[in-house]
Each structure stands twice: as C-alpha cells, then as structure tokens.
C-alpha cells in the first residue's frame, strides 16, 4: 500500500507498517540523477540528510529520503495500551523532522517511510531509481554497533559489501 500525499503528508500516519511516500514540491522528471539517503533521529543521519540536500542541489539530482522503521521507533513496553499510537507518533515525528529540513532543498525530493531491514530497503530503493549513490550516516559506535557488525546487521557494512552502487558515509557533527 502506498500513501502519496502533498509535501507535508497526512496529519497522522495511521498504518505505520505500510510504505508511505510524500512527494516534495517540484517535478521529479527534471532531475539529472537520483540519490538515496537513509534518515533517522541520530546526529550522523541528520548530517547525511543535510549533506545529501547540498549534493543533490549541486548535481541537479532527485533526493529519495528513506526512514526505515526499526527498533529505535518502537516503545519499550509492547504490552502498553497505547503501543500502536506511540509507534505512530514516533514515525510521524521522523517524517515531520525530515520534511522540515527538506523544505529548504533546492531540488525535487520524496520521503519514504517503511518497516523493514534498512540495508535491503535502501539498496532496493536505489536500484529502483538507478541512484548514483546511497548516503547514510556513520555508525553510532558503542556496544550496539559492535554487536550489529559482528552479527552482520550493520547497515553500512551490509551496503558497502552488497549494494551495486557507491555508498557515502557521513559522520556526525563534531562537538566542541
């Protein structure tokens, strides 16, 4: 199921499991290339989005921004009465934050939100649009990132080894 709406999307995303697409305000047919960027609430991901917007503007590219719904979006207690609403709220907040940044994009864009395995969905989106590259933030570091790499679940490692196109890793901003 695809929900295609205006540049700011629906007031609430009711079925957070389904693929949702929000198109930006400009015509995608004018783009000279396509770029795919993964987006979530982490600082490196936000840096990746900012970098991708700038790069797409310089290249005359269409920017495909994808938020893959994962465990970071899920509330801690799955038995809570408002669990579905909490997931919907978290997914909606990601959409709102991304679209707020994308309002300043100089070229065409689309925002996607879907439940699934991030590396596979980003690679699939890039293949679908014959993207020049996939842009993501660097790993978050720490024990969770180490375990993901050891178990073969690291998004960056999986994309670097299995995607059929370049992968650009953008670090989080330095704190001073």
Automatic annotation (TrEMBL):
CDD domains assigned: USP-like (cd00293)
Source species: Nocardia donostiensis
One protein family per Pfam: Usp
Protein name stated in the entry: UspA domain-containing protein
Family designation: Belongs to the universal stress protein A family.
Signal peptide: none
UspA domain span: 34-171
Origin superkingdom: Bacteria
């Amino acid at each position: 199921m695809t929900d295609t709406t205006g540049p700011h999307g629906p007031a609430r995303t009711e079925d957070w499991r389904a693929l949702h697409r929000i198109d930006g305000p400009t015509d995608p047919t004018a783009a000279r290339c396509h770029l795919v960027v993964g987006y979530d609430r982490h600082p490196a991901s936000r840096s990746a989005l900012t970098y991708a917007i700038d790069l797409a503007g310089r290249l005359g590219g269409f920017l495909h921004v994808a938020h893959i719904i994962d465990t970071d979006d899920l509330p801690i207690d799955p038995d809570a009465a408002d669990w579905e609403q909490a997931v919907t709220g978290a997914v909606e907040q990601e959409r709102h934050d991304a679209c707020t940044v994308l309002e300043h994009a100089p070229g065409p864009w689309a925002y996607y939100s879907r439940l699934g395995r991030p590396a596979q969905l980003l690679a699939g989106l890039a293949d679908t649009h014959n993207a020049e590259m996939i842009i993501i933030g660097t790993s978050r570091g720490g024990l969770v990132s180490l375990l993901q790499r050891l178990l073969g679940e690291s998004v960056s490692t999986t994309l670097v080894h299995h995607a059929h196109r370049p992968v650009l890793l953008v670090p989080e901003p330095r704190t001073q």
